[in-house]
């Protein structure tokens, strides 16, 4: 048996046992319940998957890969030398050549060797045969923004970008025009809602009778502490991750989050964003994670996604993002120096002089 055929066969078996629709009732059993009787969500889990949030246009109305397609793609991303960051676009590639190319790290301006530093012992693959994490609407894509949201996003973009020689580029006018991610204030995957990050995709869940704690490995914010059965904070109190409150509905933990601030704007949303998450322990190795987002000032309809959280042995590693926070001064200094060069002015020993060019 060839190595490639063996990998393909293994991938087919693995993907075949993951229900495409992630259906099923909550798992029962004494070892899947806490001492106080709640479903036990505790442990270290991963959301690792190459399945994209939105369905690539090439799949149109196809919600699922065939078993043969899924096995072939899983075998391809399991090969040595795959760049896990570039491979995230593999479903959008339409030909075999494009799929091979998108999994390989380019040699231009290499900052890290992703095939080395991002490849884990238990490799990332596809968590199901779905062509998108979004399950509603049936298109597998985020609904179009309403006109108000389109205008709002255009204004945001104009504030953070400007034209340089008729080419739109990021603005370095000040710290307020730099991205939240660059300044290490918040990552887009942190949520709520949570979505699989590019790497460091582990999270740990803790429980007490009246709280659930979700601690993500790759996070700029403290662990999310979710009280159970308590009312929300007053609407005047706004927070980066919103205000989360949990309740049990049978075997499912339902987490309702409101009171976001005006700065997060998840996928273009406003502070009116409303997120409902559902955590369901379906077996010893899996939690089904679902979320629905709604913002009447952004989309004409709510939209929903789901993916499995898969059991891992750990450990989680401390994650720290500080480059943009500590170096914003130098980022802006470089921008000012570039501007002086472009306008023909340079500095020499503290004095400005007009360049002879």
Describe the structure.
This protein is of the alpha+beta class and 357 residues long. It has a domain at 1-26 and 53-132. It contains six helices and 14 strands. The chain has helices at residues 3-16, 67-77, 96-102, 114-117, 147-160, 323-342; strands at residues 43-46, 134-136, 161-164, 167-170, 202-208, 211-216, 224-227, 243-249, 252-258, 274-283, 286-294, 303-312, 345-348, 351-354. Strands 1, 2, 5, 6, 7, 8, 9, 10, 11 and 12 form a ten-stranded antiparallel beta sheet that branches. The chain has a two-stranded antiparallel sheet with strand order 3-4. Strand 3 and strand 4 (167-170) form a beta hairpin. Helix 1 crosses helix 2. The longest helix is centred in the last third of the chain and has 20 residues, at 323-342. It is globular, with a radius of gyration of 23 Å. The termini are far apart.
Query: Per DSSP, what share of the residues sits in E-state strands of 2 or more residues?
Result: 15-25%
In whole angstroms, the N-to-C terminal distance is 67 Å
Strand count: 14
- Describe the global form: globular
H-E order: HEHHHEHEEEEEEEEEEHEE
Q: Roughly how many Å is the radius of gyration?
A: 23 Å
Question: Main β-sheet: number of strands, strand sense, barrel status?
Answer: 10 strands, antiparallel
Amount of helix = 10-25%
- Helix count equals 6
- Which regions have little confidence, pLDDT < 50, spanning 5+ residues? 1-23, 346-357
Mean pLDDT: 85
Label the structural class: alpha+beta
């Amino acid at each position: 048996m060839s190595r490639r055929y063996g990998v393909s066969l293994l991938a087919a078996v693995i993907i075949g046992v993951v229900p495409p629709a992630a259906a099923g009732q909550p798992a029962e059993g004494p070892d899947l319940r806490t001492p106080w009787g709640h479903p036990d969500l505790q442990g270290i889990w991963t959301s690792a998957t190459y399945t994209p949030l939105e369905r690539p246009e090439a799949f149109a109305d196809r919600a699922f890969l065939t078993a043969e397609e899924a096995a072939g793609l899983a075998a391809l991303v399991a090969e040595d030398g795959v760049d896990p960051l570039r491979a995230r676009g593999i479903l959008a590639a339409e030909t075999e050549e494009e799929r091979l190319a998108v999994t390989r790290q380019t040699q231009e301006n290499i900052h890290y060797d992703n095939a080395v530093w991002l490849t884990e012992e238990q490799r990332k693959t596809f968590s199901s045969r779905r062509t998108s994490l979004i399950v509603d609407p049936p298109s597998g894509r985020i609904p179009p923004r309403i006109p108000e949201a389109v205008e709002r996003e255009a204004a945001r973009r104009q504030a953070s970008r400007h034209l340089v020689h008729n080419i739109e580029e990021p603005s370095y006018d000040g710290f307020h025009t730099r991205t939240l991610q660059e300044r290490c204030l918040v990552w887009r995957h942190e949520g709520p809602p949570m979505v699989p990050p590019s790497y460091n995709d582990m999270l740990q869940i803790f429980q007490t009778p009246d709280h659930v704690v979700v601690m993500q490995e790759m996070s700029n914010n403290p662990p999310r502490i979710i009280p159970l059965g308590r009312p929300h904070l007053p609407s005047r109190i706004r927070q980066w991750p919103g205000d989360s409150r949990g309740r049990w509905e049978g075997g499912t933990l339902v987490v309702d989050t409101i009171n976001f601030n005006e700065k997060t704007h998840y996928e273009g949303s406003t502070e009116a964003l409303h997120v409902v998450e559902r955590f369901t322990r379906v077996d010893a190795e899996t939690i089904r994670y679902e979320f629905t987002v709604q913002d009447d000032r952004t989309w004409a309809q709510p939209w929903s996604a789901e993916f499995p959280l898969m059991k891992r042995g750990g450990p989680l590693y401390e994650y720290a993002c500080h480059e943009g926070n500590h170096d914003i001064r130098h980022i802006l200094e470089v921008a000012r120096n570039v501007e002086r060069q472009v306008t023909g002015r340079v500095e020499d020993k503290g004095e400005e002089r007009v360049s002879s060019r």
